[in-house]
Design goal:
The complex is a heterodimer. Chain A is of the alpha+beta class. In chain A, 36% of the residues lie in helices and 31% in strands. In chain A, strands 7-8-9-10-11 form a five-stranded antiparallel β-sheet. The longest helix of chain A is centred in the last third of the chain and has 30 residues. By secondary structure, chain B is of the alpha+beta class. Classes of the chains: A alpha+beta, B alpha+beta. Strand 11 of chain A pairs antiparallel with strand 10 of chain B, so a sheet runs across the interface. Chain A: One of its GO terms (molecular function) is actin filament binding.
Chain lengths: 304, 274
């Protein structure tokens, strides 16, 4: 979306805030603090910057599925909409805690125990924690810097005959600004537990972003959606079935990306520019004038 | 200014147009500086008289009009628009013809324009070679592999005659901007976009003329940029993907994991029989 809107003589503060927000929200993974610094330089108006930052940072952090170390050292909390209690409070179900997040500094400033009403009831929690352990096992194996969480996003308080929904979130970032590259993997899997049909419907959404910027600016963005289902069994059987599906899909997707990259150099890139002309030799600059005249001649002949 | 350029280096290259117009609004006093330092995807105009398209840049602009390299006239029409002196115009005509052949051989389509103008150095001049290609399946992509595929190349060369009259000094600055969007075969998308800029200088003999010298430099530079994007820049994003998520061993009869499970099963059977 174009944040600039109709061009006016003098920008209103509101328009400036909207533009500033646009820059912050389009920051590549792990670079919002750098973008913020440059933006402050461009705006040279702290009131406008603060207003934009207040709105943009929470949105960006949640979109990025930012993982933040909890202030008591008990693990990480994911900043995402599924665990959002209020704008700066996020639940971490593994330790049953609620973390206070400073969005602009991207740190956790405190934790408290979650109240009973914030936690899921025994029945969905059984499935949630079983899946959480399985996902953790998978993430540890496949994502060197990965973090994950499982939330009960619907039917938090159902008893053992009710339907509910779990959302599984995986976020893995590799940030090395010194080597001019940053990237993030995000996958979100929504699992619908239907007690009538005895099924679990899974919908997955995977996003990968990578930025390489040594003497240039190259960005990769991929999005992929898929779905699958399995039968509803006990918590541990279901957890193992669900995580196997996720693992297989994500592995297949990675293989698919590898395929994309392998075709890039010799096929896809050719659509833009060939490595060499069809003649497989460099362009004949010394005889080009002759070539150009010949072409003119052929054109004139064929016109007659 | 530094901060503004910093932002341009971080925003997604596919959104560079929006990013630049936003900066122009925030920094109206730096607009000419911004426009000259930040390269943008090229725009196209139609020269009706010649039935040909031409590319727009700052070097063929006078006011709100742009000069076509084919007819040497301004669009929309402009009286007293700046024109290159006759000797440069002759070279410009030839450069446009030959560069179109070069473009056809490497790009299998696309649009090109060359503009020449005088500089302050005695007997010196400058030239700007532009190429734009739409390689999408709805554009000029021959193989139908890209949903969206844009390539913009901007080459600016400054030429100075050396004292010995037989050689000239060339300074080339080139920028390539591209964006590719391909369907992955899954229900997903795969977008790569980027821009890089490089410089090259050379002292070359004038025996074959300016055009051959400039052409060879551009050809060499374009190959280097294409190769760099392909091998280094795309390679780095690939490396990143496989660092974020490791490709796990798939469980097949021949894979390491598959083999070790097979061994265990056989050992179990052997043990149970003894």
């Amino acid at each position: 979306m174009d944040p600039t809107g109709p061009v006016g003589e003098e920008l209103s503060d509101e328009q400036k805030i909207r533009i500033a927000k646009w820059f912050l929200l389009n920051s590549p993974p792990g670079e919002i603090q750098y973008v913020a610094k440059d933006l402050q330089g461009v705006l040279s108006n702290d009131v406008i910057y603060q207003a934009a930052a207040r709105e943009a940072f929470p949105i960006h952090n949640k979109e990025q599925l930012l993982s933040v170390e909890m202030s008591d050292g008990s693990g990480h909390v994911l900043v995402c909409q599924y665990g959002e209690i209020s704008i700066n409070h996020f639940i971490e179900l593994r330790t049953a805690q609620v973390a206070t997040i400073n969005h602009i500094k991207q740190v956790c400033t405190g934790v408290r125990l979650a109240t009973d009403s914030e936690l899921p009831s025994t029945y969905p929690e059984g499935y949630r924690s079983a899946i959480d352990s399985e996902v953790m096992r998978y993430v540890e194996e496949a994502f060197p810097a990965g973090h994950c969480a499982v939330y009960v996003t619907k039917g938090k308080d159902v008893d053992d005959s009710g339907c509910f929904e779990l959302t599984i979130v995986i976020s893995s970032a590799k940030l090395s600004p010194k080597n001019f590259c940053n990237g993030r993997w995000r996958s979100i899997w929504v699992a619908q537990f239907d007690n009538g049909l005895r099924t679990v419907e899974l919908k997955g959404h995977i996003k990968i972003s990578a930025h390489y910027f040594e003497d240039g600016n190259v960005q990769l963005d991929t999005v992929y959606d898929d779905k699958e289902s399995t039968i509803l069994q006990g918590p541990s059987e279901t957890a193992s079935a669900v995580v196997t599906i996720i693992q297989n899909f994500e592995s297949a997707y990675l293989a698919c990306l590898e395929d994309c990259y392998s075709k890039l150099s010799d096929n896809t890139f050719k659509e833009l520019r060939r490595k060499l002309p069809i003649t497989r030799t460099l362009f004949p600059w010394h005889t080009a004038r002759q070539l150009s005249m010949n072409r003119e001649l052929t054109r004139e002949m064929s016109n007659k | 200014m530094e901060a503004a350029l910093g932002l341009m280096r971080r925003m997604p290259p596919s959104l560079s147009r929006t990013a630049l117009s936003s900066l122009l609004l925030l920094l109206p006093d730096h607009s000419s500086e911004l426009l000259s330092l930040v390269d943008q995807p090229l725009e196209v105009l139609w020269d009706e008289g010649c039935g040909k398209q031409f590319l727009l840049c700052d070097y063929n602009r006078d006011g709100d009009s742009h000069r076509s390299p084919w007819s040497n006239t301004y669009h929309p029409p402009l009286e007293d628009g700046v024109l290159p002196p006759a000797h440069l115009r002759d070279l410009e005509v030839e450069a446009n013809e030959i560069f179109a052949l070069y473009r056809d051989q490497y790009y299998e389509g696309g649009i090109s324009s060359v503009y020449l103008w005088e500089t302050d150095s005695p007997e010196g001049f400058a030239a700007c070679f532009l190429i734009k290609k739409d390689g999408s399946r709805t554009g000029e992509g021959r193989r139908g592999l890209l949903e969206q595929g844009l390539w913009d190349a901007i080459h600016v060369i400054e030429v100075e005659k050396a004292n010995d009259e037989t050689t000239a000094h060339y300074c080339l600055t080139s920028t390539v901007m591209l964006s590719m969007k391909s369907a992955t075969g899954f229900q997903g998308s795969f977008d790569l976009s980027g821009s890089i800029t490089r410089q090259m200088e050379a002292d070359l003999s004038l025996s074959e003329g300016h055009l051959s010298n400039m052409g060879r430099m551009i050809e060499d530079m374009e190959s280097k940029l294409r190769n760099g994007l392909d091998q280094v820049y795309f390679g780095k994003t690939r490396e990143m993907v496989f660092t974020l998520r490791e490709p796990l061993d798939t469980l097949t009869a021949t894979s390491a994991t598959g083999q070790s499970i097979q061994h265990e099963v056989i050992n179990d059977i052997v043990r149970s029989r003894t």
